[in-house]
Every structure is written in structure tokens, then in C-alpha cells.
Amino acid sequence: MDNQIKPVVVSINKAREQGVEDTLILGEIKNQNPEKNVFFQKAEERGASATEILDEIINQNTAQKEEEEPKGAPLVSVESSFQGENDDSSFESSSTESQEPRPQEGTKEGRAEILLDFVKSLSGEKKKKGLIIGGVTLFCIFLISFIFFARTPAVGDVSEREIDEFELLPAEIAKLTEPAIVKIGHILEGDITVPPFDVDMEKLEVVQRPEEESLTFPVDNYWEGTGFIIDHHGTILTNAHVVTIEGIKERIFREEVEAVLAEQLIEADLTEEELIFLKEKWEGAEDDSNQDQISLREKNKRMFFNGATFDTKSKIKLFDPSSEKNDLSDLLEDGFDIDIIYANKDYVYDQKDFAVIGINEAHLPAYLPAVSLGDAELVRVEEPVYTFGFPGMRSILDFMKDEGNDVGPLSVPDAKVSEGYLSPSFMSGSVTSLEESADRTFHFIESDVEVSLGSSGSPMLNSQGKAVGVVSFMADYFESDDMLARSMPINLVEEAGDFSEELSGNYYYHFKKGIYFMRHRRCKRALEEFETVIENTNETFFPEEKMDSFIKRCNDLIEAGDSIDIKWDLFKQRFF
Question: DSSP states of 148-167 as a string?
């Protein structure tokens, strides 16, 4: 008989002694041992009664027990054998362990209690089997969980907001933004005709003299500036004076009108106090009671150009950063044509010196690297800022001087450019003050970052690598001193259109996300992000080698076993 039926022998005898009917005992055995139904079915097919089946169980069990006993060994009762095998399943052990009084044997309650103990005895072997199965199951669960844990990324994916607010090191900001910094060249040719004029010394006003002939000034000028791409289709922010002729007007006014004024002041033989008074009146002395009035210079400037005519033609080029030419004229010829989307021509008066231009789509496909726009309202004094511009005009001026040429308003020179002419300069510093504009509508961001000629239109960047301002630097070409970067808040650009954060496109997000993963030594994820940037960014502005330093750093970490790509890597580094 199967060992799983042996434990019930003692229970059968006990139940019979207490008057439990054989049919009831057999029924309980069937219910508690459904896997033995074949045995019971065969017995019933022979026409055996409940009593005969129970006797057969007892006899076969007893016979098997005697065969297993060694010769000469004392006989052991089935009950004692059963108790040793499964103490907590026998009636004796159950009654011993229980501290509560048991019902009197022979009564109805007693028979019920015996039957209950009998049922408990049937589950003893199942408990053993259940413990084994449960232990194996728990081990499997632990093993699967450990494998899953070990293969789980060491750091979960990050949100766009976390990437957006992630602060970068200066070198990382430089790598991220450099491909989006562009160099702009502006050629202006033609004539400007203005009515004849004189200067009224008493009123310090420009007086037109219609009886005389108009004055014509030939224009053959060239100047440069910087811009930065803000979306992957080629939208660019820069200064208005870089792409408009308002700067030329300003220069002509200074050179012609103020030269006449200066000559007359000298002839008037005025005292030093009188000269200071006239100078302040002309330029507009600071007077809190008269802040809304513009200076006499500005009034006269507008009067001077009221009757002026401009027969000029502008040619604005965006330098091709991949060009290998070293002649300025050749570089301009290879450059991309641009369209002016918006330019504030009143910047001379309202100080909002910015413009929005676009690369002609016929010359360049989409998916350009772009700088993300920040919020100038969050800028605070003493926080770090960075600029990225092209101070290349200085090298051209130096070349012209070396060649013995007079450097005034500059025509397109046949000049050789120095190595690195198309590489922007990265400068760092901090915010020194927030200076209120003349009309009190916004604040300039003043800094201690040095910039020089050609850096007009550079972005002022914060520690997240976002542009919070546009640097405005309106120096004359013959001026040589560097100046400290002063930028208009980027929020002013909203006047030109709806330029939102999304304009930076996928370049900024994936590049910065790659830097984030690299900093956390999740090098495989970082390499995936860097590969996305390479595959989806225009190679003219972002050649693949721009990413070499980041890729090499990740590969070195992986090779050294210092990359933490899954939690098993983290576990190994902590405990091994």
C-alpha cells in the first residue's frame, strides 16, 4: 500500500473504537485522498463493503510493516510508528499538545472530535510536500527576481523637465552650443542722398538749407556679426544692426553732422563750462524730471534722415562652417543666403537691438543644431553666464593695417583670414547687474564677460546651456578696445513671433540627455542619445567628429568596467 495511506491506520482504529461508522470513515478517506480514488474504485468494483475496504487497508499496511522490520527487532505498533513519522498528525500528539479539555470519548461530541483529528492526520504528508513545493517556488521567484533586478537599468529614464533643468559644466555648454553659433557677413553697396544742412548753434538743431544742393554719400561697406540658431529649420537670432542699414545711418550722422557741429564749437571759442553744458544738452544729460524726452542728438538724427533717400543694396551671407577657403571674398561666395523675418529698425531709439533671420531653405536641408531659449526673468546677479561669438573682424582690421590700408568704414577687403576664423570663441563670467532700459520697459543683463568686434548677436547662456540674452555690441570698426558683454533679455524676442522652447528641436534634448547619462556613467544609454544626434543633425553644421570626445569617454568607461548600465553593474561596484 502506498505510504500516503499508512498514516490513516491508527486513525481508522481509533474512530472504530469510538463508534464511528465504517462508511463515514471511508468517505472521509476518499475526500482527503482524491488521488487514491483508483484504489477505492477498484475495491468497490469487486463489491467490497466499506468495512472490507478498511480491513484491507489495515491488513496490507500491517503486512508491509512487518516485512520492513529487521529480524529480532522488537515489534513496533502501527500507532507508535505513525507517531514517529508524523507527530502533529496523530490523535495522541494532538491531545498532548492541546491544552484545552477534549470531549468525553463515546459521546457524539467525542466522535466528532476524533473525526476532526482524523481529517487533520490526512493532511500531514501534504504539509511536508507543500513545504518542499513552497520552498522551491520561493527559490525560483527569488532567482527570477534577482535576474530581473540585475538586468534592470541602474537609473530609470528621466523626464524632459529633469533634462531641461540639468546644469552643465562650462566645457559641456561649449560642446552643446558651438554648432548652433553662426557667423554673418553683410555687404552694403550704393548711395545715400541727404538734404543740405547746417547746425544752429543756439538751438543745437540741424537746419536744412533747401537752397543748396543735396549731399550724396557713396556706400561700400562690409561688417560682420554673430547669430545663433534657435530651431532645426534654420531660424536665427542676431542684432538688428548686423542685418539692417540703420547702423550705417548712425555712422553717417556722426561722421557728417557731428563733424560740422564739432567744427563750429571750436570756432565759437567757448569756455570749458559752456562746452560741457552743450555736450550734455546734445547727448541728453541725466535728469529724472525729463526721462521721457529724447536727447537733441536723437531728435536731430530723425530730422536729418527725414528727407534722405537710400539707393543701396544689401547682400547678407551666412558663412558655411565647413568651408576651407582662406580668402574672405571666397568665404562670402560660399556662404548661404538669408531672409530677414523680422528686424527692429527702431533699435537706435528703443534699444531693442535684435532681428530674426532664416537660412534660405533652397540651399540647406532641415534638422540644424539649435540653442534652447531660457527665461531672462530668472536671471540673478552673480550667477554664471557664458557667451559664444565671432570676434573675427579684429583679425581683418589687423590685416588691413599691416597692409598699409586706412581702416574706416570697411569695404570688402581682399584679405586672408587666419586659422580658426570660422571657429567661435567661448567666454565665461558672471552677471554683474540688471540695468534698466531708457524707457524702463526691460532690464539689460550686464556681465563681466569680455567681447569684441564681431561678437554682436552672440547668445548669453546660463548654466543649463540656454540663451537668456542677445549680446549687443555696436562699436565702430576702427575702435579696438574690448567691451563687457551687455545683452538684451531673450524675452524681447517674443515681440517678433512665437518662439517657444520646442523650437530647439531634438538636437538640444538628445544631446543634453546624452550628457546627463554620461555624467551618471550610464554609457550605453548615453551612446544611444549621441548616435541619435549624429544621425538626425545636418553634418554641415554638426560633423560627426564633434561628438568624438563624448563617445571616447563613454567607451573608455565601458572598457574599464566603470559603466553602470544595469543594476548588476551597480551591485558589483559596491560589493566587489
Answer: HHHHS-SS----HHHHHH--
* Residue 303 CA from chain centroid, whole number: 51
Cell of 88: 502533529
Whole-number Å distance between alpha carbons of 226 and 84: 94
How far does Cα 58 stand from its chain's mean position? 79
**Pick from 115, 117, 112: nearest CA to 91:** 117
Question: What does the longest C-alpha to C-alpha distance in the chain come to?
Answer: 152
In 18-71, which ranges are continuous DSSP H helix? 22-32, 37-45, 50-68
CB atoms within 10 A of CB 451: 26
Encoded amino acid at 422, one letter: L
Tell me what pLDDT residue 249 has: 78
If you search the block for the grid coordinates 533747401, which residue do you land on? 210
Q: Please write the tens of the pLDDT for every residue from 268-293.
A: 777 888 788 877 777 765 444 444 45
- Please tell me the predicted confidence (pLDDT) of residue 505: 60
pLDDT score, position 384: 97
Model pLDDT for residues 458-513, shown as the tens digit of each residue: 999 999 999 999 998 654 444 445 578 899 999 998 777 665 544 556 899 999 99
User: What's phi and psi for 318, nearest 5 deg?
Assistant: -105, 120
Beta-bridge mates of residue 206: 199
pLDDT at 263: 80
SS3 string, 500-545, reads: CHHHHHHHHHHHHHHHHHHHCCCHHHHHHHHHHHHHHCCCCCCCHH
At residue 412, the pLDDT reads: 55
Q: Which residues of the chain have pLDDT under 50?
A: 1-2, 4, 69, 71-99, 122, 150, 154, 286-292, 399-401, 403-409, 475-480, 501-502, 575
Q: How many CA atoms lie within 13 A of 306 on its CB side?
A: 11
Quick one: cell of 366? 532641415
- Of 174, 487, 506, 545, nearest to 352 by C-alpha is 487
Burial of 428 (0-12, 13-18, 19+ CB in 10 A): middle
What is the rounded distance in angstroms from the CA atom of residue 73 to the CA atom of residue 42? 35
Question: What's the CA gap between 367 and 370, in Å, rounded?
Answer: 9
Cβ pair 490, 374 in contact under 8 A? yes
**Rounded alpha-carbon distances, angstroms, from residue 416 to 118, 393, 394, 400, 454:** 108, 12, 13, 10, 17
Alpha helices in 335-445 (DSSP H): 347-350, 393-402
pLDDT at 529: 95
**Cell numbers standing for residue 444:** 539689460
Q: Where are the alpha helices (H) located in 346-386, listed in sequence order?
A: 347-350
Angle at 191 between CA 188 and CA 193, to 5 degrees: 135
C-alpha cell read off for 534: 549624429
SS3 for 118?
Answer: helix
